From TrEMBL:
UniProt cross-references to Gene3D superfamilies, sorted A to Z: NAD(P)-binding Rossmann-like Domain
Protein name according to UniProt: Short chain dehydrogenase
Pfam family, one: adh_short
Lineage: Bacteria, Bacillati, Actinomycetota, Actinomycetes, Mycobacteriales
InterPro entries: NAD(P)-bd_dom_sf (IPR036291), Sc_DH/Rdtase_CS (IPR020904), SDR_fam (IPR002347)
PROSITE patterns reported in the protein's UniProt record: ADH_SHORT
GO cellular component terms, semicolon-separated: membrane
Enzyme class: oxidoreductase
Enzyme Commission numbers on file: 1.1.1.36
Amino acid sequence: MKTKIAVVTGATGGMGMEIVADLAVDHTVYALGRNGEQLSTLAGISGVVAVESDIVKDVLGGGGVDKLKNLDRVDTLVHAAAVARNSTVEAGSVAEWRAHMDLNVIVPAELTRQLLPALRAASGHVVFINSGAGNGPHPGNTIYAASKHALRGLADAFRKEEANGGVRVTTVSPGPTDTPMLRGLMDADGKGGNDYDPAKYIEPVEVAKAIRFVIDAGDTTQITNVDVRPRVELADRTK
């Protein structure tokens, strides 16, 4: 019987599906997402509880996700839900800024707050999925990058706040990963279609492996930051 509990947001995304499948090996996983077809697939994995949720509405406006309210322990919380759309400061709208900040920053903060008693009870682990865009300038993708910079600040400050609370905190920052999100960004830039080569990018399962690495760390340590990069950086490719 699986005694550990995990909660994964963005579970129906390209990374989320792999993260849920990996955690389900030794956790009961509450997999939160909006894609009904993908949720049905996840529900077929032993130990997965598929939860259909508009997480911005539920967490920020609805008082929380109902199926999570009675959890008395959470061993692993993975914030994988995110939105990414190319935009500059000049072209960006207030609505776009709010959409990115709500899902990429405020939802992780508020859901963590709601689950904090259960995380403390389990001496649990919170994993924030960041991005290579969370470090340095990313012109043309400014709103998303700014939200990921904010998410890193949230994770680092929260780690300090919980230094004596028993909760471990990790930021995992994948580089370009072969997901529908990346394909959408590439299509918007006119670099998708036949020009898109999945072999150039990280496989989503590698992100799940990175999370497994950090949550399996020994009791006397925490892995605070992990960068997951392509085997050959895109800027270094000669072919």
